[in-house]
Amino acid sequence: MQGAILLLLALTNVVHTKGKSSDPCEAELVLDPRPHSVSITEFGAVGDGKVDNTLAFQNAVFYLKSFADKGGAQLYVPAGRWLTGSFNLTSHLTLFLGKGAVILGSHDLTRWETIDPLPSYGRGIDVPGRRYRSLINGYMLRDVVITGDNGTIDGQGSMWWDQLANGSLKYSRPHIIEVMSSNYVIVSNLTLSNPPAYSIHPVYCSDVHIHNVSITSPAELPHTDGIVLDSSDNVCVQDSAITMGYDSIALKSGWDEYGITFNRSTSNACIRRVDLRSYSGSAIAFGSEMSGGISNIRVEQANILSSSRGIELRTTRGRGGFIKDIIVTDIVMEDVQMAFSATGQWGSHPDDDFNPDALPVVENIMLRNITGTNIGVAGKFTGIPELPFTSICLSFIRLSMSYTSSAPWTCSDVVGSSSFVFPEPCLELMSPSSCILGPRSAGKLAAS
Ligand SMILES: *[C@@H]1O[C@H](CO)[C@@H](O)[C@H](O)[C@H]1NC(C)=O
Ligand SMILES: *[C@@H]1O[C@H](CO)[C@@H](O)[C@H](O)[C@H]1NC(C)=O
Ligand SMILES: *[C@@H]1O[C@H](CO)[C@@H](O)[C@H](O)[C@H]1NC(C)=O
Ligand SMILES: *[C@@H]1O[C@H](CO)[C@@H](O)[C@H](O)[C@H]1NC(C)=O
Ligand SMILES: *[C@@H]1O[C@H](CO)[C@@H](O)[C@H](O)[C@H]1NC(C)=O
Ligand SMILES: *[C@@H]1O[C@H](CO)[C@@H](O)[C@H](O)[C@H]1NC(C)=O
Ligand SMILES: *[C@@H]1O[C@H](CO)[C@@H](O)[C@H](O)[C@H]1NC(C)=O
Questions:
Q1: CA–CA separation, 185 and 31 (whole Å)
Q2: What pTM did the predictor assign?
């Protein structure tokens, strides 16, 4: 009996987080090396940028499924241009893109299946109803790594952007990587470009680490997002650079009545050492879909450059949920039109069935040690009259404004406090009440 248990342990991948830290960026994910490796070329793939390799990727993953209980396996993609439609990953798999390897998203619609909308959204993000499956998918997996020696995954989003713009999109756009209901996921050492919609979308996941990735999309495109953390917990995003048309990093958790019913928050996430540019969106956005709640998030050491908004909290009546216990610290901003924004009037509902009495809670938001140069507007905080945003705490903030004429701050239905903030904030943010810190945030601050 004991022998059988030992044998079972030997055959099962040991996946765990090293150290006891509850801070997701301090807990290193330890994944075993894969004893087996195969190259995509063994499945007949051709890296000329023209031949469609969708079946090769699907067959390779199907074959590697049989290694899941034998220590897992690696699918190696060598240098070349590998055109493919949507394919799935499997547990205990590493997808490794060698130097010079480029995976290209196909423009052939027959290579893209459609799937049900996410239950926490009730419909696709672009159009009601179904959505296209993403280029690289994980569903109900454990121990998955997407990495490489700076290989590239190019979503070739132009076709999807055109379809969105000209109204011919039948289903909502795919993402480059979507991992759903999975645990222990690493994305690292890669370049992603031109996402049809989002670049990396962990949804209903735990223990996700995204390290050392570079993500780009043309600036003039408003509808592309970098990393979207959605109803997921224990997430670390670090050492990455993101240049996006819309949001660089967004935290979400479902949309109105669908998200309230699904009720899964995004919590315990850390984002640090990132360079972000968001031409028409926000470098870091909380919401607007946040109906399952967003809490216990730390953002630190971010450079926010050439962006429309720096840090933004978005919500609206009917959303329910909460955004609370957020710390944003040690940030440098340059050329940002609005450094901080918090709005309770975002609007945008999945359908007419939302409950207007479902009011979101926004509280305990700390913004600390932030400097900015060439900032258009310092901050605009417009809460909800029946349920104002509370405990908004600003400290050690110094912004140099590009215009001196316009009012740097606008506030309504918000309560908070400030110390050492320049330019001087509005009265609503100068109440003497101090912030109530969550246990993690308090520990972090006491330590610093
Ligand atoms: C991909 O995974 C989904 C969900 O498990 C499944 O429905 C679909 O058939 C899979 N597609 C392929 C090509 O294996
Ligand atoms: C980041 O990834 C590149 C390859 O993409 C690698 O050369 C570099 O060493 C990595 N840096 C870190 C800090 O992991
Ligand atoms: C990674 O690849 C991208 C695109 O090919 C390139 O721009 C970048 O310089 C590379 N980074 C490293 C660290 O090699
Ligand atoms: C919309 O854009 C797509 C992708 O470029 C194109 O195939 C389609 O013909 C366009 N439709 C219209 C109505 O312009
Ligand atoms: C990323 O690259 C760095 C430097 O080469 C390496 O130490 C690290 O293990 C890589 N990460 C993964 C998951 O391969
Ligand atoms: C959502 O889940 C939390 C626990 O995770 C629970 O306390 C709360 O009552 C739930 N809310 C709803 C609306 O079901
Ligand atoms: C404030 O943030 C800057 C930029 O990240 C950092 O260099 C500095 O050490 C921080 N100051 C304090 C007192 O933490």
A1: 10
A2: 0.94
Alpha helices per DSSP H over 19-74:
54-64
Proportion of the chain above pLDDT 90, given as a percent: 85
Ligand nearest to the CA of 101: 3
Output the six-digit token pair for 88.
């799935």
Q: Given pLDDT bands bounded at 50, 70 and 90, which one contains residue 432?
A: confident
Region 377-387: what's the mean pLDDT? Answer: 97
Burial of 33 (0-12, 13-18, 19+ CB in 10 A): exposed
Query: Exposure string (b/e) for 248-270, b if CB count within 10 Å is 16 or more?
Result: bbbbbbbbbbbbbebebbbbbbb
Bond from prior residue into 288 cis (ω within 30 degrees of 0): yes
Token readout for 98 is 């060698």
Helix (H, G, I), strand (E, B) or coil at 258: helix
Protein residue whose Cα sits closest to atom 12 of ligand 6: 263
Q: What distance in Å separates the CA atoms of residue 306 and residue 310, rounded to the nearest whole number? A: 9
Q: Ligand 5, residues 188, 211, 214: which to mutate, most atoms within 8 A of Cβ?
A: 188
Tell me the pairing of strands 101-105 and 361-382. Answer: unpaired
Question: Do 425 and 418 contact (CB within 8 A), yes or no?
Answer: yes
Encoded amino acid at 127, one letter: V
